[in-house]
Design goal:
The structure holds two protein chains of two kinds. Chain A is an alpha/beta fold. In chain A, 56% of the residues lie in helices and 9% in strands. In chain A, strand 6, helix 10 and strand 7 form a beta-alpha-beta unit. Chain A is flat, with a radius of gyration of 26 Å. By secondary structure, chain B is an alpha/beta fold. Chain B has two domains: 2-88, Four Helix Bundle (Hemerythrin (Met), subunit A); 106-295, 3-Layer(aba) Sandwich (Rossmann fold). Chain B has helices at residues 2-11, 13-23, 34-45, 50-67, 73-88, 118-131, 148-159, 172-185, 203-219, 238-249, 268-276, 297-305, and strands at residues 106-111, 136-141, 162-165, 190-195, 226-232, 254-258, 280-284, 292-294. In chain B, helix 4 crosses helix 5, helix 8 runs parallel beside helix 9 (203-219) and helix 10 packs parallel to helix 11 (268-276). The longest helix of chain B has 18 residues, at 50-67. The termini of chain B are close together. The chains are: A alpha/beta, B alpha/beta. At the A-B interface, helix 2, helix 6 and helix 9 of A face helix 3, helix 7, helix 9 and helix 10 of B. The complex binds guanosine-5'-diphosphate and magnesium ion (MG). Guanosine-5'-diphosphate sits between chains B (112, 114-120, 197, 230, 258-259, 261, 284-287, 291) and A (107-108, 138, 190, 192).
């Protein structure tokens, strides 16, 4: 896990206490830290330098606000600037119908999976998508797309006997007319930006099918190379958007800033998992905090909201914040978690928790815990301190478990409450260790 | 030696021009100065060497420069190369039988995140070993991704390699087990296990890897003798995280770095080696069967700094 930029900046800015104004001199050390943070988040060298220069110009001369540290103030300026940069342009797709989308990128960046994800999304939005297999090189790439198309009940076209990609594209347009498909997604082969032959090929495909969207699919963990890749693809094809993939990992995603700066095309979608549903519209604020290593509280809250009903989520967020959380909330939350997806992906969005691993047999642990809490009275759930020996025995009998399990649950619940308080107090590392320990015991949901 | 270097350099040709074009001015015959140090810093950072190695190289060159203001570009390059060599000392992987009992095949498991090049590397390595006169069985253990089994099967067909495969959704560990049994009974030298891509952040998927190993060890407690992380050379610092976590949770024995036929310098391998001291076995330099080269510190360092023999 990365030491957060906030921590580093606080160190660099120690000497800034009591300074009234930010200036080039007193910010120098802090901005060096910012640059290092950007570089270690894989932002391109030159992009990082320009960015820091811009921030410096913005900061210089500003009064240090009351109530915040200079570090916080600089972070805010950096964060806002990052959000602004990353968020330039619209995440929306062209309104053309039929809507023709060309997916391009390096090898293994996630084009095929993203094609299927996009098809699924467009279908949900009322389109009739057609997936077109234009990767005639990688063994079984066409099979992969076809399987995904079937799975999502999307129309599919490919010609396994042909290597003439522009011709396949043209044929696909005929097919789309016959099948009255109105969103045609062309999945192309991975290619290096310096492979002239293959770049020419995709240019010819583009000329043939006249796409409304040309999306560069880029791995979120891409390094300095991102700049060369984006520039060459943009020069050759005039990209209209970017899809950032594999963000369910813990890459900081600095490549996105590089690509965005070089091409100035909007980042439109992000891939967040291997399943076809793991595809989201791009939110610049989330990526900005990720690049800066600030975690992603907003995402967490929003993800919760998508699945958990609104009121429930607000109540829960409030309780989490106040560390006021009883067994009844716990039960409710557990039931919501089942809908929400894995605890791990949720934790990944919390500041400082990225990369925390949770193991354990989720289903079983959940079921037993649920049974125990359900055997309690409402009053007991709200006030676990009421649970004396005889009450515990009654609950154990009701849930069909041994009394030690009830005891264990209560003990762990206490730990969890303690942990919540630590979240509140910011003792993240300590909280994490506790969380892991609890997980190992297999009691808490993963 | 020269022949091998030449071949390697041809593969890395674009890489060499890219970095050499940036550094030609510094690493030529003229003395270096403050602005060329700046260019040098950029060249090192853009090679994905990471902050630590970049600063180490810069520091040594600066120190030499402070002592001798007439330091030439060539000499600075030699210093940089020396630092890189020092950092990489011991990083050349040698494929041996390890503790494999006589008569048992050596198992090599390819591990890594999605799209890093595991399947292609499995095929390339099988081909290479066969060129070296060894016998190989491929195990198609990516039973998760759509058409992954077909992908490896297509390679096997194309290169006429032996493969044990089931179907998508089958138990990956069972496929590995069967492949080992098949290889053993036919007296094969190697089993190459192609696994499904998984992000290092997904512990449940790491558990599946552990299961593959457990099941292989029923056949041979020393299997898999090699567990290599296949890393996409165009990725940045996250490949260090990947390596760390896979190593911690599963235990790696080495690396393969792929896609170095592009313009990326694959500098992340330096960062990984620095932190984990995992030897680097091969570099992937293209999509064809023959595009796999043993890693050589000398060649890599020379290619990166644009030095000739
Ligand atoms: N240019 C290039 N492409 C590669 C290399 N190794 C693999 N690839 C390509 O990268 C893509 C993903 O590779 P694959 O082996 O399927 O990755 P896996 O998901 O890890 O098994 C495919 O299109 C491969 O052809 C390499 O060394 N150079
Ligand atoms: Mg594969």
């Amino acid at each position: 896990m990365f030491e957060s930029l906030t921590d580093k900046l606080s160190n660099a800015l120690r000497n800034l206490r009591g300074v009234g104004k930010l200036s080039e001199e007193n910010m120098a050390e802090a901005l060096k830290e910012v640059r290092t943070a950007l570089l270690s988040a894989d932002v391109h060298f030159k992009v990082a330098r320009e960015f820091v220069d811009r921030v410096q110009a913005q900061c210089a001369g500003q009064e240090v606000l009351k109530g915040v540290t200079p570090g916080q103030q600089i972070i805010k300026i950096i964060y806002d600037e990052l959000v602004r940069l990353l968020g330039e342009g619209s995440t929306g797709l062209s309104a053309a119908r039929p809507l023709k989308i060309l997916m391009v990128g390096l090898h293994g960046s996630g084009k095929t999976t993203s094609s299927a994800k996009l098809g699924k999304l467009l279908k949900k939005r009322g389109y009739r998508p057609l997936l077109v297999g234009c990767d005639v090189y990688r063994p079984a790439a066409i099979d992969q797309l076809e399987i995904l198309a079937k799975q999502e009940e999307l129309a599919f076209y490919a010609d396994r006997t042909s290597k003439d990609v522009p011709a396949i594209g043209a044929k696909a347009l005929d097919v789309s007319r016959n099948e009255s498909a109105d969103a045609i997604i062309f999945d192309t082969a991975g290619r290096l930006q310096i492979d002239q032959e293959l770049i020419e090929e995709v240019k010819r495909l583009r000329a043939k099918v006249q796409p409304d969207e040309i999306l560069l699919v880029a791995d979120g963990a891409l390094g300095q190379e991102a700049v060369n890749v984006a520039k060459a693809f943009h020069d050759a094809l005039e990209l209209t958007g970017l899809v950032l993939t594999k963000l369910d990992g813990d890459a900081r995603g600095g490549a996105a800033l590089s690509i965005k700066t070089i091409t100035n095309v909007p980042i439109k979608f992000v891939g967040t998992g291997e399943k076809t549903a793991d595809f989201d519209t791009f939110y610049p604020d989330r990526l900005a905090s990720r690049i800066l290593g600030m975690g992603d509280v907003v995402s967490l809250v929003e993800k919760a909201q998508e699945t958990i009903d609104q009121k429930e989520a607000e109540k829960m967020a409030e309780k989490l914040r106040k560390a006021d959380f009883n067994l009844e909330d716990f039960l409710a939350q557990m039931q919501q978690i089942k809908k929400l997806g894995s605890m791990e992906s949720i934790l990944g969005m919390m500041p400082g928790m990225n990369g925390v691993k949770i193991d354990g047999d989720a289903e079983k642990a959940l079921a037993r815990t649920e049974a125990i809490i359900k055997s309690m009275t409402f009053q007991e759930r709200r006030k676990p301190e009421l649970l004396n020996g005889s009450r515990r025995q009654r609950i154990a009998n009701g849930a069909g478990v041994k009394i030690v399990e009830v005891n264990q649950l209560l003990k762990q619940f206490q730990q969890m409450q303690k942990m919540m308080r630590m979240f509140k107090g910011g003792g993240m590392k300590k909280a994490m260790r506790q969380m892991e320990a609890m997980q190992k015991s297999g009691r808490f949901p993963s | 030696m020269f022949g091998l270097f030449k071949k390697f350099k041809d593969g890395l040709a674009k890489t060499v021009t890219a970095i050499a074009s940036k550094t030609a001015a510094i690493f030529g015959q003229k003395p270096i100065d403050a602005s060329s140090l700046d260019t040098l810093e950029e060249a090192l950072y853009t090679a994905d060497f990471g902050v630590e190695t970049t600063e180490e190289i810069l520091e040594e060159i600066k120190t030499a420069y402070r002592k001798d203001k007439t330091l030439r570009g060539q000499e600075a390059a030699a210093i940089g190369a020396a630092v890189l060599k020092r950092v990489l000392a011991g990083s050349e992987g040698v494929l041996d039988r390890g503790a494999t009992p006589a008569g048992n095949p050596v198992v090599i498991a390819m591990i890594g995140v999605n799209g890093s090049g595991k399947t292609t590397t499995s095929a390339k390595l099988a081909w290479k070993l066969r060129e070296d006169g060894k016998t190989v069985t491929l195990a198609a253990c990516d039973t998760f991704r759509a058409a992954a089994v077909e992908q490896l099967k297509t390679w096997a067909q194309r290169l006429d390699l032996e493969i044990v495969a089931s179907h998508t959704g089958a138990d990956a560990a069972a496929v590995a087990f069967d492949a080992w049994q098949a290889a053993k009974s036919r007296g094969r030298d190697y089993v190459i296990v192609d696994t499904a891509g998984r992000l290092h952040t997904k512990s449940n998927l790491l558990e599946e890897l552990a299961k593959i190993r457990r099941v292989l060890q029923k056949n041979d407690p020393s299997a898999p003798q090699h567990s290599w992380l296949v890393v996409d050379g165009s990725l940045g610092s996250n490949s260090i995280e990947q390596a760390k976590v896979f190593h911690e949770k599963f235990g790696l024995t080495g690396l393969v770095v792929t896609k170095l036929d592009g313009t990326s310098r694959g500098g992340a391998l330096v960062g990984i080696y620095r932190q984990l001291k995992l030897p680097i076995y091969f570099l992937g330099l293209g999509e064809q069967a023959e595009d796999l080269q043993p890693f050589s510190i000398d060649n890599y360092v020379k290619a990166v700094f644009g030095l000739e023999d």
